[in-house]
Design brief:
The complex is a heterodimer of chains A (241) and B (228). By secondary structure, chain A is an all-alpha fold. Chain A has one domain. Chain A is built from nine helices and no strands. Chain B has nine helices and no strands. Helices cover 83% and strands 0% of the residues of chain B. Chain B is elongated, with a radius of gyration of 18 Å. The chains are: A mainly alpha (241), B mainly alpha (228). At the A-B interface, helix 5 and helix 6 of A face helix 7, helix 8 and helix 9 of B.
């Protein structure tokens, strides 16, 4: 039953599989992102309080979601790499990090752009913004640790330990708006009860999140192929690929 | 009384580290001096007015303690890894986590504890009132303890790396930010006359979390650093 999992550990197999998957992720993500962009910018109704300015939500919220999601993926890949000693898992973890850091930065920047007209300030040290900033530092620290070792095996495993230690920040970010009443809006969607956001605004948000997820899938396929190439550059199977 | 082998080994590690440190007092005193110097920088850089400094005094003492602890952490495992002692510990059959915890405890006694004891002095120099001394010391007690453990994880990951101290700070500081937030908040609340029990309890929770899971991460990191 787990053959597919262990087969994925073989670099040539993974390389081929990722090459076949990437276009599927790519084109569907492009379609969904374009659809969600049109829907969110044009079709969705304006907010009664914020007017049209709220539409940056459609970039801000999915980016923030992805920043946390990718960290968890990175940590799970790191754990798989440590437990099953699969190099591919470590390569996946390495491939995720810059993407996650970029989404975190995007979330912070779009949040600041949103905050200036709505709250009157570019930045405020409330719980969610601060913990998202800490997430950015965690990503940067992970990438710094990776690049500081010459031995690739040691780099992989040390970075894996760091990723797993840092995953404690993710629940802190997510629940920070519940634990501390702060300026940032509390959760409207991922609660146990019905979402408190209006349905015509919610649909493009969901579409955008799925679009971003598929985009991440596409980027991960491409980057992981690149990582495999880099790690296996002297291997004989590459000459036939 | 014959102790279990693990306890004996841990106690020996603790004794060894403390004895070694007493032979090099100047090295052990450097973080403490750095601590005092850093707290001195703030009144020089901002304002000599004690009533204004009082507002940030708790935070400044905490930041200085954080930085001083980080300074001392880089050499926590370095000499033992370099001369092969750590390899022997990994191969010894004793639970590595306990041995590393003993080392971290020795490190804390030598660097963290002096910071805690010195805190009221530097705090008062920044205008911290006597009423907040207890909260300051209690929060720093738990904070420096947690920091020693988190720093131990970072030190274990970066042992032998060139310019490892900068990388170590980069890794440990984001993990230590919640500590700083709660610790400084506790002191601020004590200064305002409110009960600081909320942040103090959160600090305690973080401390016990790091105490229970930290040695696991440390021993995993040491094994990675030592086997090559």
């Amino acid at each position: 039953m787990w053959t597919w999992f262990h087969k994925f550990g073989s670099p040539p197999h993974a390389y081929r599989l990722l090459g076949k998957l990437a276009p599927w992720f790519g084109w569907t993500s492009l379609a969904l992102i374009l659809l969600a962009t049109w829907w969110g910018l044009v079709k969705a109704p304006a907010d009664y309080q914020q007017g049209d300015g709220f539409r940056i939500l459609y970039v801000h919220a999915p980016s923030a979601w992805m920043s946390m999601f990718i960290y968890v993926v990175m940590a799970i890949a790191a754990a798989i790499g440590l437990i099953w000693r699969m190099k591919i898992a470590h390569a996946a973890s390495a491939a995720c990090a810059p993407v996650g850091a970029s989404f975190t930065l995007l979330a912070l920047v779009t949040g600041a752009i949103w905050g200036k007209p709505m709250w009157g300030t570019w930045w405020v040290w409330d719980a969610r913004l601060t913990s998202e900033l800490i997430l950015l530092f965690l990503y940067l620290g992970y990438m710094a640790l990776r690049s500081s070792f010459d031995d690739p095996q040691r780099a992989d495993r040390a970075a894996a330990v760091l990723a797993i230690v840092g995953v404690i920040n993710i629940p802190i970010i997510h629940y920070s708006v519940e634990w501390w009443t702060t300026l940032h809006q509390p959760a409207s969607v991922t609660k146990m009860s019905r979402p408190t956001i209006a349905l015509p605004m919610l649909i493009p948000l969901f579409l955008m999140i799925i679009g971003f997820q598929l985009y991440f899938g596409w980027v991960l396929c491409r980057r992981l192929r690149g990582e495999i190439l880099r790690r296996e550059r002297n291997a004989s199977w590459l000459k036939e690929a | 009384m014959s102790l279990a082998p693990t306890w004996q080994a841990a106690r020996l590690v603790l004794q060894r580290d403390l004895t070694l440190a007493t032979r090099r007092w100047d090295e052990a005193a450097q973080p403490l001096i750095f601590y005092v110097v850093v707290t001195t920088l703030f009144p020089l850089a901002t304002t000599p007015d004690l009533s204004q400094l009082r507002v940030i005094s708790g935070g400044v003492v905490w930041v200085a303690a954080l930085l001083a602890s980080l300074l001392a952490l880089e050499s926590l495992f370095r000499s033992d890894v370099e001369d092969g002692t750590m390899e022997q510990w990994v191969l010894s059959g004793q639970p590595l986590g306990w041995l590393l915890l003993a080392k971290v405890l020795a490190h804390w006694i030598l660097t963290g504890l002096p910071l805690v004891l010195m805190a009221p002095v530097v705090g008062t120099a920044l205008g911290l009132p006597f009423s907040a001394w207890g909260t300051l010391m209690l929060s720093l007690l738990m904070g420096t303890g947690t920091l020693s453990i988190l720093g131990g994880i970072g030190a274990a990951l970066t042992v032998g790396v060139r310019r490892g101290s900068v990388l170590l700070s980069l890794l440990v500081l984001p993990l230590a930010m919640p500590l700083l937030i709660f610790g400084a908040r506790a002191v601020a609340m004590a200064m305002d006359g409110e009960s600081p029990s909320g942040p103090l309890q959160l600090l305690a929770a973080i401390f016990f979390l790091s105490l229970s899971l930290g040695p696991l991460a440390m021993s995993a990191a040491i094994r990675i650093s030592v086997e090559n």
